[in-house]
Amino acid sequence: xxxxxxxxxxxxxxxxxxxxxxxxxxxxxxxxxxxxxxxxxxxxxxxxxxxxxxxxxxxxxxxxxxxxxxxxxxxxxxxxxxxxxxxxxxxxxxxxxxxxxxxxxxxxxxxxxxxxxxxxxxxxxxxxxxxxxxxxxxxxxxxxxxxxxxxxxxxxxxxxxxxxxxxxxxxxxxxxxxxxxxxxxxxxxxxxxxxxxxxxxxxxxxxxxxxxxxxxxxxxxxxxxxxxxxxxxxxxxxxxxxxxxxxxxxxxxxxxxxxxxxxxxxxxxxxxxxxxxxxxxxxxxxxxxxxxxxxxxxxxxxxxxxxxxxxxxxxxxxxxxxxxxxxxxxxxxxxxxxxxxxxxxxxxxxxxxxxxxxxxxxxxxxxxxxxxxxxxxxxxxxxxxxxxxxxxxxxxxxxxxxxxxxxxxxxxxxxxxxxxxxxxxxxxxxxxxxxxxxxxxxxxxxxxx
Length: 449
Prior knowledge:
Rossmann fold, 5-stranded mixed barrel
């Protein structure tokens, strides 16, 4: 008996020694026992540190004071089982419920017999509305500091979009409100719809995917993201940073129509236009057809009035132009110019005539001066010129000694000349004045007859 038991114990020890040290060294001929793999997995998981995680309680059951729950990620379809001892649950001020959002301090562990991974909850705290609002406000301030909410980045909506992109829930009231009110305002409106999840873990990824798809379509002029009212947790996807940045990067104008007037997700701040409700969005993205027709009529009436006024002013201007004398009697312009020409001709004739008369008078005056200064005029006054008859030519007698007694003389008179003989110097008579010398002229001396 003793030898046999000792032999049985020796066989597992020899088999354990022959097993591979590492998982990579196993083979079909030399595999690991399942228990060995489970133990190694448990050893590895037990070395994992505890960590704070955030999630939503989707399943909750109690066994005595202990609680067994399933936590799901708030943004992805991933869930893990967890368990909490009674003392952990006792620290909660209010009992947990399904759907509660919590942060929990968990330590991964593995149940060796079943190979099941479990999160051992060592502390758990519900995330209240105040915590969610504080997170949203911190994110809002951070994104605002980056300039994502600046008015200069916002694009104007087209006056009349040809096609409207609509991102909304499947068969939701928000979808019906937008379609109905838009059709009532503008019956010819066209929509390109994308129905997505608007709450839950997949809401963010589906909305972003639909937004990018519509943004890539050139025929879509504006995109509306619409969702009806709900709790703060229901509207959390529309404050997600990934969605906010996707809207900021969109090339097409985006209208945010989330919840009611009091709801204010971050999407409202980054969108190019914030509508208080989906109905308000429908009213703001398309014009009212009756109002536009009324504006067209008003513009047409104003245009007709302006044209009529313009024609009336031009007609009045033409009437005034036709009433002017120059247009009523065009030859009057020629008459005025003819009168001006005659006046100028008369002035020219008078000027020339005056110049001729003045010239004639000047010539007559000069002629009189010349005549007055001529030797003939002197002779005509009774003077004579005495010259030697046989002496040098034109020798004029200027003194008695120039013609001694017996000298033949030639006396030039006003009309003709005579020959005379000098009898010498004439003696002065008693009682007479002194001897007067003969007058002299430019061409010689003269004497009285």
